């Protein structure tokens, strides 16, 4: 079957606006990662219903055409990148929130809804969806589920997967299944929902999801604390986590990331010249201001030079806006950046930061770090000029050392961004051969012909 004939069959299934073929498909061929490659797709398709997704998948299965599921391609691991001869199956057009159930505190949504739109829609009904990846203004709920995305509020509330109750999934055969339970509890059969969460499009295509919600928390208060050194900031983070309280956000920025964000966005009001900073928030109803006073006192006791307290939502948002610029700011430094996503047990963070400094020194490369220090998930970042082959090679090599260090500390190559095509080389070291083989067997059970997102995740 020629590409032309496949495109003709797709055109019979979809409206003209739902199909981009040939060169037009190249606009959708990769995600936001640097350091990953992409193949040439046959076409990109934009279905708007589960039935349309299933019809496209059946067509692809019939002709043995690989499928790369996509949200909005905000991923940082190459997971949504095209492979040669594939169909890019974008869920971007599935943008309906189907129901918000206040009594059961759940929302049922199509997969292409933008994360922040969902957060805003449920907030209007007095409910709270906590997962808040830095990309929430552009990422989709389906992409968040497929990567088990984290974010700033994980330290208190957990990751996307902690909120997934039920999924509608199109299998590689084109069959439509529903996994999980709308109920709080449910243990019938094996937990396929958890298997699909974080599977990066390799086991099935998520078209709809029912997500758990919480009551709206209190108005957040926050503090931005500046420290002379990373070790003082880390000591403060440890002391805060050792209190009986749990901050809703506990983020870390080092001197390099503060400088990059400040020059990218001069209005960001981050503490210029600081050796490191913490952003700490509390959203405990009736207690947030008192919590933040206590966190500020801890920061000062650990050597903070300034503590800037944000008493209302607008002031808190202004600080978080600066933090959310991290990726763009780091990319702007030299044109490209490798944003790692290692996670270690919190007690090993000091060893991780010291080890990263040593790796950078040996390689003669600046490695900047920022991230979710409250849950042990750090983003060490290497900036490089993508046109400079030697710089690209050094960045890639250095990146491998940082990941190996995290694994040696009992951590993981990826806390939230996913494996995609970028980090598969580390799976042997982290998982070992028996677990890897078991995982390949699971993949085979779901997708015997290996058509769903080949070359990714596993
Ligand atoms: C500025 C910036 C900040 C970020 N901050 C964070 C952060 O704080 N935390 C975090 O976890 N990530 C973060 N990310 C990474 C990224 O936004 C997340 O991985 C996000 O979940 C990807 O969603 P997406 O809709 O863009 O998915 P895509 O990038 O399109 O796809 C990601 C993966 O999921 C698969 N996929 C997508 N949709 C589906 C579906 N419906 N069914 C099956 N498979 C699917 C794809 O095949 C791919 O493997 C950030 C990215 C940027 C650019």
Instruction: Provide the list of bound ligands, each named once.
Output: flavin-adenine dinucleotide
Which structural class fits the helix and strand makeup? alpha+beta
- Specify the overall morphology: globular
Q: How many domains is the backbone divided into? A: 3
The largest β sheet comes out as: 7 strands, antiparallel
Helix content: 25-40%
Tell me the span between the first and last alpha carbons.
29 Å
Question: From the coordinates shown, what is the CATH architecture of the largest domain?
Answer: 3-Layer(aba) Sandwich
The CATH topology label of the largest domain is Vanillyl-alcohol Oxidase, Chain A, domain 3
DSSP strand count:
18
Instruction: Give the rounded overall mean pLDDT.
Output: 96
CATH class type of the largest domain: Alpha Beta
What can you see in these coordinates?
Belongs to the FAD-binding oxidoreductase/transferase type 4 family. Its cofactor is FAD. Residues 37-216 form the FAD-binding PCMH-type domain. InterPro entries: FAD-bd_oxidored_4_C, FAD-bd_PCMH, FAD-bd_PCMH-like_sf, FAD-bd_PCMH_sub2, FAD-linked_Oxase-like_C, FAD-linked_OxidoTrans_Type4, Oxid_FAD_bind_N, Vanillyl_alc_oxidase_C-sub2. Helix 12 (349-363) packs antiparallel against helix 13 (389-408). The chain has 15 helices and 18 strands. The relative contact order is 0.12. The chain folds into three domains: 3-90, Uridine Diphospho-n-acetylenolpyruvylglucosamine Reductase, domain 2 (2-Layer Sandwich); 97-215, Uridine Diphospho-n-acetylenolpyruvylglucosamine Reductase, domain 3; 221-408, 3-Layer(aba) Sandwich (Vanillyl-alcohol Oxidase, Chain A, domain 3). The chain is globular and about 70 Å long. It has helices spanning 3-13, 50-63, 115-123, 141-147, 154-157, 192-196, 230-242, 255-264, 288-301, 313-324, 326-334, 349-363, 389-408, 427-431, 433-446; strands spanning 19-21, 43-45, 67-70, 87-90, 97-101, 106-110, 127-128, 164-170, 176-180, 205-212, 214-215, 221-227, 249-254, 276-282, 306-310, 336-339, 367-372, 377-384. The protein binds flavin-adenine dinucleotide. Flavin-adenine dinucleotide is lined by residues 31-32, 68-76, 79-80, 91, 111, 133-135, 139-140, 142-144, 146-147, 149-151, 200-201, 205-206, 327, 416-418, 420, 453, 456.
